[in-house]
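Q: I'm building a small set of examples for a reading group on sequence design. Run inverse folding on the following structure and report the sequence directly after it, with nothing in between.
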């Protein structure tokens, strides 16, 4: 069965009960939940860690450098639009929807991992202070913004999984994503 048809409820005008067992037994739902949790955990960590990193590792005064903390998020808006366009292009070329979602989510995890891994390598070698500040700031910006590929990955998958219950599927996924903030 196609991913978009796994959780379709019965068609018709009469009220139907929600097929909780079918929804909760869906492996694609749990794949979305795990991806959502992982993505949100990373973004929450970066949200709280970035100002401290800028201050302690790079010596930025947080009250006078607030525009630097906004840069990654501004870049993320553009990257999200790019990811959406790239996903649409892949679909128009005949790439299966599930493959498009997987590619976009892989990029959404791989780019931040690569950029933050390079940033960690710089830190372990004591290279941050010796480099121009633009290098770690660029890695940080692209690392955070790269996570925006998830908007064409996991965040678009709810409706693919079930048009009728997309809101419910999104609610389940978002609940677990929000729980990542408590870890």
């Amino acid at each position: 069965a196609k991913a978009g048809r796994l959780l379709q409820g019965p068609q018709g005008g009469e009220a139907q009960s929600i097929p909780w067992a079918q929804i909760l037994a869906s492996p694609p739902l749990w794949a979305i939940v795990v991806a959502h949790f992982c993505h949100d955990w990373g973004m929450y960590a970066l949200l709280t860690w970035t100002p401290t990193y800028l201050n302690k590792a790079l010596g930025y005064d947080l009250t006078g450098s607030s525009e630097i903390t906004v840069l990654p998020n501004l870049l993320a808006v553009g990257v999200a639009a790019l990811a959406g366009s790239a996903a649409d292009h892949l679909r128009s070329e005949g790439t299966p929807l599930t493959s498009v979602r997987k590619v976009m989510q892989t990029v959404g995890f791989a780019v931040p991992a690569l950029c933050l891994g390079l940033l960690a390598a710089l830190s372990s070698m004591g290279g941050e202070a010796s480099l121009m500040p633009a290098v770690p700031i660029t890695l940080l910006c692209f690392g955070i913004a790269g996570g925006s590929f998830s908007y064409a990955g996991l965040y678009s998958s709810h409706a693919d999984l079930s048009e009728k219950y997309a809101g419910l599927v999104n609610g389940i996924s978002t609940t677990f994503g929000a729980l990542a903030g408590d870890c």
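Helices lie at 20-24, 27-56, 66-92, 97-124, 127-130, 134-146, 157-161, 166-179.
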